[in-house]
Automatic annotation (TrEMBL):
Gene3D superfamilies: Serum amyloid A protein (1.10.132.110). The gene is LOC116836167. Major acute phase reactant. Apolipoprotein of the HDL complex. One of its GO terms (cellular component) is high-density lipoprotein particle. Belongs to the SAA family. This is Serum amyloid A protein. PANTHER family: SERUM AMYLOID A, SERUM AMYLOID A PROTEIN. Residues 1-18 form the signal peptide. The keyword Signal applies.
Length: 127
């Protein structure tokens, strides 16, 4: 819940200078919230699938889905991805190369690239 409250506050701050700031801020916050949901869905699907070499696909898919929501979704995807990779690179010990590859997949998805570029063969079509 704290995360969503922080997103709300930061979203409002970022949108204050917009021409119709109230409407734009509301849309940004809505998009950010839904983008965070998209990121969570991709993470949950990745955990459920538990499929070898599918990590990059789910990174790209979560970022792609979130970015399709608009500027707020794209912002949420970037914040969540950077936070996760910061944790993973600093604490989990998976290494700089894995973090670099994850960030590449994140950026690919956020920029509108097809997440299937990273889809491993044999991953169930449910995902």
């Amino acid at each position: 819940m704290k995360f969503y409250n922080c997103m709300l506050l930061l979203s409002l701050v970022l949108c204050v200078s917009a021409q119709n700031w109230f409407t734009d801020a509301g849309a940004f916050v809505r998009d950010a919230y839904r983008g965070a949901e998209d990121m969570w869905r991709a993470y949950s699907d990745m955990r459920e699938a538990n499929y070898q070499n599918a990590d990059k696909y789910f990174h790209a898919r979560g970022n792609y889905d979130a970015a399709q929501r608009g500027p707020g979704g794209k912002w949420a995807a970037e914040v969540i991805s950077d936070a996760r990779e910061g944790w993973q690179g600093g604490i989990s010990g998976r290494g700089a190369e894995d973090t670099r590859q994850d960030q590449e997949a994140n950026a690919w998805g956020r920029s509108g690239g097809d997440p299937n570029r990273y889809r491993p063969e044999g991953l169930p079509s449910k995902y």
